Amino acid sequence: MMGDDVSLHFKCKGILYSLLVKTSTNEITLLMVKALICKKFGWDEKMVELKLRYIPLIVRCDEYTTVASDDDLRCYLSSVDPQGCRCMLHVEVTASSTQPTAQVSRAEKESSVGVNYNDDEIGGNAVALYVGNNVEAEQEEEAEQEEEAEQEEEEDAEHEEEAEKEAQEMDEDDVTGEYRHNEYDEPPVVLASQYTEPWEDGLNVRLLQEFPNKKAVQRMVDKAAFENSFGFVLVKSDKERYVVKCQHKRCEWKLRAAKVLNTRFSFSIRTHHKMHTCSRASQSTVKKRKGTPDLVACLLHGDYPGSMETPNPGTIQKLVQTRFGVKISYSTALRGKNRHAYDLRGDPGESYKKLYCYLHMLEKVNEGTKTSVKLDEAGKFLYLFIALGATIEGFQCMRKVITVDATHLKNGYRGVLVFASAQDPNRHNYPLAFGVLDSENNDSWNWFFELLKSVIPDSSELVFMTDRNESLINAVAYVYPRAHHGYCVWHLSQNVKDRAFNVNKGVVSFYFREMSRHYTVAAFEAAYSSFEARFPYAAAYLVKTTNNRKETWARVHFPGVRYNLDTSNCVESLNSTFRPARRYALIPMLDAIIAQISKWFNEHRKEAAAGSEAHKLVPLVENLMHDMWKEAEKLHATELNSFELLYDVVAKKSDGTADPESKNYSVDLIRKSCSCRVFDFEKIPCVHALAAFMEFNTSNVDSSRYPMQLVELVSHYYLIEVWQLAYWRTIFLVPHESEWKVPEDVKAKKIIPLQPIPKKGRKRTKRLFGPGEYRCPRTANKRRKRQGIVWGA
């Protein structure tokens, strides 16, 4: 103490301060001390609450005593040791219950820390403030306050500098191939404010997650921004990086993606602060972002993955508004729909450039696969042929009937997709080869069949079923001279019915198909005579268009064995199955075809292995025998020759004897023949052969001859073990492009893409006007109003 002045030392927030009260001890009150402390720091007394404590000068006392009244304060001031020293006073600051402490900084300019006021300014009871032994700490606090003020004024500039600095660091990392450790640390925990809790952006990405290109990252961010109602600003976007942050300056959300080293287009996530510290309510003060075609395409990718069939633009408008709360125009919905289809189809130009590498990998993963590409003199694509090794090997277990047809591509380029397919014994499609030709002409068909002949040689057992395309007919006759060629009955019936007049054309088509499927010559000739009499014009056209060659369409006159096949429905169903794929680019289309064939192989492999050992025939033939067995028991079979197994089969009477008025059928079990000719053509026992089979096993029960098995009467192609062999191999898909290992000589081969089909109509020469633009009105050649002439004026 100096005279009547009182010196107080206190500690607040870990720093030592002093007060000099120029008044006597008896006049000092608790409110005065608290007011002086608040004045020292520039605090509003209404905003804070101060709590004063000290340890009394009592032996073995370590507990604090609280100064709660003026008497407590006088007790503290009067407690001194023999040297005249007073104990340390501790001041604790807490926020007032009525106002938050965040508003304390309003009086920074009025703070008296480190300043001594004159008596004229503060009166007789003034307090002189000074820092005792903590001058450096006080100076640091002043520097921090000044720095915070500067940061608030220059916040925008600092954000820009920070973004540029991160971009430069990222460039250095990408060049060296190394990543900074702090780039992968989780963002700091953001303390929740009293108004809004931090919330996630809904991106669901992880650090170092890769994307095929920068466009994919942009679409992902756009979709999440619309779904979770937040906006963002673009900090940096170029070929090497993509940096965005929240549009609110104080929000911590940020995402940075950069190009992956030694890749062409791939991007990966380098920094992601997923928590937003801003409020969604403030979005109303920000200009709403518009929906784009990319947003529509991203939505369709998620809701209709891999599907070309999407809703109409009107429905897409409602879907976008429901999902994202954004209104889009009809044209935006249409452009997004088309972009979704384009993303599925892929880039046609890139498909042609990668074709050789793709075929190399296809042959590598599927042993025995045959592929070939033909270019024209200028190096442009002409033809493509693919025959998978699994199907080539499995065809040995198939009936030797091949259907061939072509269908037009819908990917904006000229060409046709060609299929050569067989049918397995259970009547499933079995694709043998497929390819792409420029069109259906003699050169293209000859080239395709020459390559097909390299994997399926010419044979008299071989049968081709096609439509009546002239180039196709000539190619089959030229390349496969020993094979038999039949016309599709369905296509021919559609042509024949159009030449009939004054009749129901559907009836004409039906009668023609029924006539072509008769098994006996007598039945066919009777039906043909009736057809000529009822439909003379259609019959005349039939003779003219087939050159009167009935063996090309009539089953009874066909020289080969075509079993139940008389149409090209196998390849027609393939054309329908791959209708969406025909709109893809070349390589995506091939991927879709191979994936579907692989799926069929897996399904039929499991189906063939699902039966029990007791079943020897395929399910289709097994069920057919089951249905005919009941009818066969109603027939009467008589053995004619026990050594040659010849039988006569007629209908039974009610007493079980033969009906002499019914038609007789001769059955030869050794030669697998019946006079009805069904057994001969189908290679499956007819109902008469089943009756003879029952008679043979019944009459030889007690003899030394072994009983005949039903499987002995069926062609070996219908045995279930042969059916299993057709699907035993696995068809593998071509791996992702990043896993391709292609020799340099294959990479060096180049293919020039075909020219796209030009759009119909007159070519546009003037550009379309953009938004806000308008066509200037014509000033010349305007038609003037008709000027009336006043006669006699």
From TrEMBL:
Gene Ontology MF terms: zinc ion binding
Listed InterPro entries: MULE_transposase_dom, MULE_transposase_N, Transposase_MuDR, Znf_PMZ, Znf_SWIM
Keywords for the protein's UniProt record, in alphabetical order: Metal-binding, Zinc, Zinc-finger
Annotated region described as Disordered, given as residue ranges: 98-118, 137-173
Keyword Nuclease belongs to the record: no
Keyword Glycoprotein among record annotations: no
SWIM-type domain location: 665-697
Annotated SMART domains: ZnF_PMZ
Transmembrane segment boundaries: none
Protein name per Swiss-Prot or TrEMBL: SWIM-type domain-containing protein
Organism: Microthlaspi erraticum
